Amino acid sequence: MPIAVQNYSYFSDMFLTTGIRDLGQYMLLLGQTFRKPENWREYYKALVREFGLLGINSLGIVAIISVFVGAVVTIQTAYNLDDPLIPDYYVAIATRESIILEFSPTMVSLILAGKVGSNIASTLGSMRVSEQIDALEVMGVNPAGYLIFPKVVSLVLFNPILITLSMFLGILGGYGAAVLGGVVSPQDFQLGLQTAFNGFYISYALIKTVVFAFLIATISSYYGYYVKGGAVQVGTNATRAVVSSSVAIILANYVLTQLLLL
Fold first, then answer.
1. Which of 1, 19, 170, 45 is nearest to 96 (CA)?
2. Whole-angstrom distance, CA of residue 84 vs CA of residue 78
3. pLDDT of 138-179, one tens digit each?
4. What pTM, to 2 d.p., does this model score?
5. Angle at CA of residue 58, ends 56 and 61, nearest 5°
6. Rounded distance between C-alpha atoms, residue 204 and residue 86, angstroms
7. At what angle do helices 143-180 and 186-194 cross, to 10 degrees?
8. Which sequence spans correspond to the domains of the chain?
9. DSSP character at residue 141
10. Would you list the DSSP string of 87-115?
């Protein structure tokens, strides 16, 4: 057998074995995470903290990005639809659909995967390296449940709020760009927003958001929880958490689109 074929077979088997092992370890971690809490009061306190750290602290970046992306989408759409045969209100329709269907639920989730995911992975990784997780185990506390469960719940509950805010601010930014830039009149933009609106698109976006939030929280927690080594490995696993979460979001986006829209 040629050496190139042997090397390909070796690496493919290695990646397959590693992938199966990681998936199994990930599922076992989920089982530990969703066990019955030992103390509901402590879990509630941790949940409140995570709402602030992972949710409220992300409001600023989501707001800024949504406003300016909405403005850019409107300007680009108007530029590409610059045809006397196409009504001006089509600009608002295209902006609305782009923001609701794809930008807010998917692009913002990818941004949050970088911001929130790296935070989760590095925090848990530092706790693992400093043996704080081992100390919780010695105390008889389920560390996976106490440390990960509040993060998952806070993201699943708060991310839909962030995405809803992103939709509103994205459309508002598009409206501002259209009116202030003289691209579309206020009347035409408002008409476009109301024309052929499908309310299910909002539900579709929020369903995707919940799934994406779960993936970000659990995948990032997995890479942080199982850090081996020192501070360098914490940074490496935080990067791997962001990359893996982003890939999972893209794949889940395709699957959910096939299931919900087709």
1. 170
2. 12
3. 888 899 999 999 999 999 999 999 999 999 999 999 999 998
4. 0.89
5. 135
6. 28
7. 140
8. 1-33, 38-261
9. -
10. -TTHHHHHHHHHIIIIIIIIIHHHHHHHH
